[in-house]
Amino acid sequence: MNQGKYIFAQLTDFLPRRVFDRIVDKYEGNKRVRSFTCWNQMLCMVFGQLTARDSMRDLMLSLEAHQSKYYHLGFGSTVSRRNLGTANEKRNCKIFEEFAYVLIVEARRSCNRNDFEIEVDGNVYALDSTTIDLCLSVFWWAEFRKHKGGIKIHTLFDIKTSIPGFIHITTARVHDVNIMDLIPY
Q: Which residues of 58-75 are buried (b: 16+ CB within 10 A; e: fewer)?
C-alpha cells in the first residue's frame, strides 16, 4: 500500500504555486469559477504532456482511469470532459503563457552550465524554425501555398542552458528574418 505521495504530486510540488496564483489573479482566471480552477486545468494539461496524450479524448480516458486518485494527484473532484473543454475554450491563454515564461527563467537559472566552449560575455542564442503542415479545408486561415496550409514555430534557443528563451507561432509564410524584430532583447 502506498504510504507517500504519488510521483505526479511530487513533481507538481516543484511548481511555484504562489506565482501561478498571482498570474491567475492578474487575468481574473478563476472569476465565476466554482470548482474547476486554473490550477486544476494546468495540472490536467501537465499530466497530458507528461503521459504523451495526443488529444483531449485520450487525456480524459487516461484521467478517468485514475478517477479514484484525483484528490491525491491534486486534480480536485470535478475533472470532466466538459469542464476541461470549457476551461480550454474560455480561459485566457496568457495565464499559462506567462507562467511558462516564469518556469523558463527558473529553469535557465538552475541549468546554467559553465562548460560552454567559447568564452563570451552575455548569452549566445540560436534562432530556428519548424513548419507544421495543416489541412487547408480545416485550417483555412493557415494558407501557405496554393494547396497547402501550415504554421511556423520560431524558437530562440539559449545555447548555454539548452532552454528556449522565446517562442513565436506565425503562418508558414513568415521568414525567420522578420521574427528578429519581435524578439525582446
A: ebbeebeeeeeebeebbb
